[in-house]
Design brief:
Radius of gyration: 65 Å
Distance between the termini: 193 Å
Order of helices and strands: HH
Strand content: under 5%
Helix content: over 70%
Number of domains: 1
Shape: rod-shaped
Structural class: mainly alpha
Length: 164
């Protein structure tokens, strides 16, 4: 049993070595370890605070992005609506201009047709009159070809003149 139970001298020296070791560890190892742990704790706390502030900033930026995106969509919709309205207005203006131009062309064509019709009628009257004169001349020449017919016509005309 001697091996299991220590002696008094061993206990005193063991206790003394333990106390010296504790003092040395406290002086040389414990303080640097506590300082390192405190610094690590401080670093972790700063990192957590930075992460929290970054998270809050990210939420703010995300809200700003959503606002900008919503504004951009509204502006895009407005631009599309304006472009559509402008396109419809331009199409309507083009149709109106084309209708005015068409009406003008039709009116001019009708005027040209009227003037050409009048010219054709005048030309036709001139030709009919000319033909009528030629026919009358030929008929009169045929009737007045002989002297007897000329005298009879002259007498008839003289009689008509005196009667009037």
């Amino acid at each position: 049993m001697e091996l299991i139970t220590p002696g008094i001298g061993q206990l005193v020296w063991g206790g003394l070595v333990f106390i010296i070791l504790l003092i040395l560890l406290k002086k040389f190892a414990w303080n640097p370890m506590l300082t390192a742990v405190n610094e690590r704790e401080k670093s972790i706390a700063e990192s957590i605070a930075l992460a929290d502030s970054t998270k809050a900033e990210m939420k703010q930026l995300q809200a700003q992005n959503e606002t900008l995106l919503r504004d951009a969509r509204i502006e895009r919709d407005n631009m599309i609506r304006e472009a559509s309205e402008t396109g419809k207005r331009l199409i309507q203006e083009s149709k109106d201009a084309a209708k005015v131009q068409f009406d003008k062309i039709v009116a001019e064509a009708q005027e040209v047709i009227k003037s050409e019709k009048a010219a054709a009628i005048a030309d036709l009257k001139t030709q009919v009159a000319s033909l009528s004169l030629e026919i009358a001349e030929k008929v009169i020449k045929g009737e007045l070809a002989s002297n007897d017919k000329q005298k009879a016509l002259a007498d008839k005309l003289a009689g008509e003149i005196s009667l009037n």
